[in-house]
């Protein structure tokens, strides 16, 4: 296994484990005052306490599920919608032009600005943050999928499939979708890292999470006024975000490095065999039953 992929999967797996068993490991209630304010890391408080006396370690554990779940669900939603828009490119026509014009318009806005506008308009709740994240990354996924679909559309085996009367629907689901699935997986992984940063940035600005939420972005925002006297309030959540994003990027890079050559090798063999098979059918059809 690729070193990047293995290392990234280990770290991501640890974070997922924290999400699952974190509530059982919290030494104190994450939103309750558990000690004096601004206590530096000790045995009783492994990551210290914040300006209100809340245990930072407990809040880190409690906040892990929020950022990971919100970003992942948002990216899944954006990928689902983006794949649908991307496959419209196979059919082309007026609808494809209108949708791609809309996609290009959305891409002209910066990610963070779009997130601010969407979440501010919809409301300050996690569900709107998920919808906003999906809406933001939808056009980016659509462009990648559409380019892949159009590339597959020009392959010889697609031409041969059309020659024997295969419908567009069959071609899309039987031939093109399996060949772009790998690209979608890499896209989801890459966008997930970006989604984590977006969710953290919006929560830092006070959007998408309640005021007392132990979200990592909000923890950084709450601790910035105490950065000089109690840097651990900011450093631990910032470090958690950075480590998770780096790990996800390692997974994305590892998937791309280890799978690209194997994928294209299988794809070429698949295409070659399918082309030969379809050409043989086309040739038999041309000969007719009496030859």
UniProtKB/TrEMBL annotation:
Query: Does this UniProt record's set of keywords contain Membrane?
Result: yes
| The protein's name in its UniProt record | ABC transmembrane type-1 domain-containing protein
Record domain ABC transmembrane type-1: where? 64-252
Q: Which domain of life is it from?
A: Bacteria
- GO BP terms: transmembrane transport
Recorded source organism is Candidatus Woesebacteria bacterium RIFCSPHIGHO2_02_FULL_39_13
Keyword flag Transferase: no
This entry carries the following GO cellular component terms, namely:
plasma membrane
**Per the UniProt record, which residue ranges are transmembrane?**
7-25, 67-91, 98-121, 127-145, 180-206, 226-252
Location within or outside the cell: Cell membrane
List UniProt keywords, sorted A-Z.
Cell membrane, Membrane, Transmembrane, Transmembrane helix, Transport
Organism lineage: Bacteria, Candidatus Woeseibacteriota
| Main subcellular localisation | membrane
Which Pfam family, giving just one, matches this sequence?
BPD_transp_1
The cross-references to SUPFAM superfamilies, in alphabetical order and at most eight, read: MetI-like (SSF161098)
Family designation: Belongs to the binding-protein-dependent transport system permease family.
Q: How does it sit in the membrane?
A: Multi-pass membrane protein
Please name the CDD domains in this protein's record: TM_PBP2
Alphabetical list of PROSITE patterns matching this protein: ABC_TM1
């Amino acid at each position: 296994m690729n070193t990047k992929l293995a290392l990234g999967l280990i770290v991501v797996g640890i974070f997922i484990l924290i999400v699952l068993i974190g509530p059982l490991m919290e030494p104190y209630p994450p939103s309750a005052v558990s000690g004096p304010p601004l206590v530096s890391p000790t045995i009783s408080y492994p990551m210290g306490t914040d300006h209100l006396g809340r245990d930072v370690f407990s809040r880190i554990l409690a906040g892990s599920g929020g950022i990971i779940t919100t970003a992942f669900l948002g990216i899944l939603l954006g990928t689902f919608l983006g794949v649908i828009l991307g496959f419209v490119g196979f059919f082309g026509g007026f609808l494809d032009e209108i949708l791609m014009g809309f996609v290009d318009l959305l891409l002209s806005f910066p990610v963070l600005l779009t997130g601010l506008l969407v979440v501010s308009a919809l409301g300050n709740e996690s569900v709107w943050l998920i919808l906003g994240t999906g809406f933001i990354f939808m056009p980016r996924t659509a462009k990648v999928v559409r380019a892949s679909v159009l590339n597959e559309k020009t392959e010889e085996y697609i031409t041969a499939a059309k020659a024997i009367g295969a419908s567009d629907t069959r071609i899309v689901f039987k031939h093109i979708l399996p060949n772009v699935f790998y690209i979608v997986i890499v896209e989801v992984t890459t966008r997930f890292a970006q989604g984590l940063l977006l969710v953290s940035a919006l929560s830092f600005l006070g959007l998408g999470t309640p005021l007392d939420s132990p979200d990592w972005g909000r923890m950084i925002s709450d601790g910035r006024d105490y950065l000089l006297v109690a840097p651990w309030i900011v450093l631990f959540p910032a470090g958690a975000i950075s480590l998770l994003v780096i790990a996800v990027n390692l997974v994305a890079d590892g998937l791309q490095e280890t799978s690209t050559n194997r994928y294209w090798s299988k794809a070429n063999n698949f295409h070659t065999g399918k082309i030969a098979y379809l050409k043989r059918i086309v040739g038999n059809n041309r000969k007719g039953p009496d030859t």
